């Protein structure tokens, strides 16, 4: 497994997103033993970068990782996120990046993860009610206290990134990026490169779509995030199947799987990028991790880069309001 640097934080260039082990997608939370085997297999295969958040569950995903990483803590760069749980207010689902809330949140995450430090602590969504400088200073204090090693932002726009970075150096920005969602290319990636900040693409498999495994939404559970997602509904879904077919066509040419090609395309975008494909299954973890060895030719990269944009918004209208792009 190759490693890269997000600013000065060294990580395996393919990480593991743990969210789907506890929430969001069909089958989440149903097989803890397989989820823990998946984390352990990731470590065996050289994956050192694991991603969670206090809102996943809420809390249960961090707890799961705490159990899975017992005795393995030093092998991983552990990333988690605050700001979508208001501890003194309305609880999960409420934006709160006030310094007091961050100080409460970090203690809970440390305890659930069974660790005395978080390697990369992201603000999960920008909170319009808290000056970004105040939030960045609060994380800076946690770094000074040794509770946090590095500071990150998620779905933050260029201006926010600049302002936060001026107070506490930002190590990485995590936003949705894949052949399914190209938004960061226009403004965010150039800003990160100018400032020397790393980039972590989340949902690198287009929430499973790019793998070609989703040909119908009939099997989605009631609480599957994709049920009311514009990209997975109606005509948009039918249109987007063609995108998945194109990825499959390149994969057939390469002799790889579509998931591997989707990840390999991201890896080819720069050595400052570390995608975190999500899975709760050992077999898919093995498949996704093997993308480290997949090389795409310039012609294959061009073909993928020229694919038309996916139809439909990445989120519902309410969710979109929380994103800066
Ligand atoms: N910062 C944020 O706001 C934010 C938002 C969303 C996600 N994230 C992070 O990013 C991580 C990854 O994103 P994601 O999980 O949303 O999406 P993703 O990685 O694009 O796709 C995950 C989905 O694809 C399926 N899958 C994985 N590998 C597969 C393969 N080889 N073949 C077929 N299907 C496969 C998974 O199902 P199985 O689990 O059943 O394999 C799951 O349903 C998350 O775990 C989370 O840590 C962050």
UniProtKB/TrEMBL annotation:
Keywords: Oxidoreductase. Gene3D superfamilies: NADP-dependent oxidoreductase domain. Residues 306-325 are annotated as: Disordered. One of its GO terms (molecular function) is oxidoreductase activity. It is an enzyme of class 1 (oxidoreductase). The keyword DNA-binding does not apply. It comes from the Bacteria. The keyword Electron transport does not apply. Residues 13-307 form the NADP-dependent oxidoreductase domain. Its EC number is 1.1.1.-. PANTHER family: AFLATOXIN B1 ALDEHYDE REDUCTASE, ALDO-KETO REDUCTASE YAKC [NADP(+)]. This is Aldo/keto reductase.
């Amino acid at each position: 497994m190759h490693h890269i640097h997000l600013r000065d934080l060294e990580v395996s260039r393919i990480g593991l997103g743990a969210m789907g082990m506890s929430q969001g997608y069909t089958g989440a939370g149903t097989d803890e033993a397989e989820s823990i085997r998946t984390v352990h297999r990731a470590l065996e295969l050289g994956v050192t970068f694991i991603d969670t958040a206090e809102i996943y569950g809420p809390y249960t995903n961090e707890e799961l990782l705490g159990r899975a990483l017992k005795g393995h803590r030093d092998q991983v760069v552990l990333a988690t996120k605050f700001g979508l749980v208001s501890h003194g207010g309305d609880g999960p689902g409420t934006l709160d990046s006030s310094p007091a809330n961050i100080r409460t949140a970090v203690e809970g995450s440390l305890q659930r993860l069974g660790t005395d430090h978080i390697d990369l602590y992201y603000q999960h969504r920008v909170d319009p009610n808290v000056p970004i400088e105040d939030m960045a200073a609060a994380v800076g204090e946690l770094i000074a206290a040794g509770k946090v090693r590095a500071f990150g932002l998620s779905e933050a726009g260029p201006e926010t990134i600049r302002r936060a970075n001026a107070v506490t150096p930002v190590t990485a920005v995590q936003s949705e990026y894949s052949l399914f969602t190209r938004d960061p290319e226009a403004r965010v990636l150039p800003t990160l490169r100018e400032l020397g900040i790393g980039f972590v693409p989340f949902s690198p498999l287009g929430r499973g779509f790019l793998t070609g495994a989703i040909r119908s939404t009939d099997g989605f559970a009631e609480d599957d995030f994709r049920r009311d997602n514009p990209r997975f509904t109606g005509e948009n879904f039918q249109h987007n199947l063609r995108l998945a077919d194109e990825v499959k066509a390149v994969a057939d040419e390469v002799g790889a799987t579509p998931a591997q090609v989707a990840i390999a395309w991201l890896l080819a975008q720069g050595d400052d990028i570390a995608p975190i494909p999500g899975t709760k299954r050992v077999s898919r973890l093995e498949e996704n991790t093997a993308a480290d060895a997949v090389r795409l030719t310039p012609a294959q990269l061009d073909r993928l880069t020229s694919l038309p944009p996916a139809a439909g918004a990445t989120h519902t209208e309410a969710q979109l309001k929380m994103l800066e792009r």
